[in-house]
Amino acid sequence: MPQRENLGRRTKKLPPGPPGWPIIGNIFDLGTEPHRALQELKLKYGPVLRLRLGSMDTVVIQSAKAAAQLLKNHDASFCDRKPLDVFTCHNYRDGSLAVGRFSPYWRTVRRLCSVEMMTVKRINDTASIRRKCIDQMIRNIEDDTAAANARGESGVVNLPHYLFLMAFNVIGNLMLSRDLLDSQCKEGYEFVQATGMAAMWAGTPNVADFLPFLKWFDPQGLRRNMSRDMARALKIVEGFVKERLEEYKLGNEEKNNKDFLDTLLEFEGDGKDWHEKIPYERIIIIILEMFFAGSETTSAATEWAMAELLRKPEAMRKEETQILGRSLTFKPERFLGSNIDYKGQNFELIPFGSGRRICIDSGLFFSLEKIMWASGRRKVLTGSMSASLMLPRRSNNSQYVDSHGYLRFPVGSSPVRVDPSISILRKAFSLDRPKTSVSPSKSSATES
């Protein structure tokens, strides 16, 4: 939903939309199922509508044609980001790509990421890293399952746990040339816990963003919690950066394959938008953000794909190596033979966005996902492990989801976390905190 503050003051002609209440605007019009409420509003007001969420004017785009017009013709007007309260902690927004202002610094770092990390050649050159991490994940699953069976246990497979470890280590190798985690070692888990908690606070709708006069009170405690967990994560990343700088001082900086941290430390400007080295504090934020953006999203998307494939064995048989697209009715094969592309030019399907703010690592995501889904089909879901992962075919899929939103496999495997409600209202105005854990000793699934 592209957003601009004070849209009414800058533009004489506004899109149509429902009248709002004083102070709170249209917040309550979204109800407990915002996606359904927006669909009903689309039928009444059209594919482009205006909502006032508290003091924030919001334009909602709900058609491919309108999205194409916005992202092609007005991308520059809407490519900035509204400053969210939680990202003011530790000056995070100043160094961020995801939530940073559209500025010369942002363009420079974005270009640096595109050229040094996300080119086709670079992704192809790092294929061995992805294969190594995925092979290690499969070995960990097999070894841990065998060890559990030897102890007389059920051999439960906590799939989200292994997917997250794999994705985290892929990012660790690309950023820092090192594995940060394995399936048993607790080294690095403080980093996982800190980033996981920070991501949770960032993803919790904050009433203070809609009603700015509440920022001073921090009514949900989000800024306070984010400041604590963000500080933990930044401190750990700073340790990685200091370690690399010590290697430079000792003359050990020569490497056959430089990682992204090397690129950031050695960058001295591009002669166009930026004419100096990237500040030390911002390098730490960039590295941290790559873990934010690349680990949880990759593991969660794979988890959803695996869960849906288990529910659709006929689709699994047709599509062994890759899944393209996603819809309310999960039909992985629906894009076979279609010319629709996912890279932001066909606006019927823009899972990674489009324009200046398109997801920068979509190429890496798909190169990694194809290997994981294929590996899952051939290694994880065959032989003795198939009984602990495969869902029986039943007509009523709702029976798999319990009251806490877990998708539970009937034999052996760990629950896959799903969110049966995407209510913005309930999350924004509830002071309750979801109780999550990323401890390796527990079998709870990661948040999707």
Q: Would you write up a description of this structure?
A:
One of its GO terms (molecular function) is monooxygenase activity. This is Cytochrome P450. The chain is mainly alpha-helical and 448 residues long. It has 2 domains: 7-62, no CATH class; 104-312 and 361-429, Cytochrome p450. Helix content is 48%, strand content 4%. It is built from 19 helices and 4 strands. It has helices spanning 7-10, 34-45, 64-73, 75-78, 92-95, 104-116, 120-125, 127-150, 159-176, 189-203, 207-210, 222-249, 260-266, 280-294, 296-311, 313-318, 362-380, 386-389, 424-429, and strands spanning 48-53, 56-61, 406-407, 416-417. The protein has a two-stranded antiparallel sheet with strand order 1-2. Strand 3 (406-407) and strand 4 form a beta hairpin. Mean pLDDT is 75; it is low at 1-9, 323-328 and 376-448.
What radius of gyration results from the CA coordinates?
23 Å
Please indicate the percent range of residues in DSSP E strands (runs of 2 or more).
under 5%
Indicate the CATH class of the largest domain. Mainly Alpha
The geometry reads as globular
> In order across it, which strands form the biggest sheet?
1-2
Which homologous superfamily in CATH is the superfamily of the largest domain? Cytochrome P450
The low-confidence runs, each spanning 5 or more residues with pLDDT under 50, are 1-9, 323-328, 376-448
Tally of extended strands? 4
Query: Fraction of residues in helices?
Result: 40-55%
Number of domains: 2
Which structural category fits the helices and strands?
A: mainly alpha
Q: What is the CA-CA span between the terminal residues?
A: 20 Å
Keywords: Heme, Iron, Metal-binding, Monooxygenase, Oxidoreductase
Pfam families: p450 (PF00067)
Protein name: Cytochrome P450
Family: Belongs to the cytochrome P450 family.
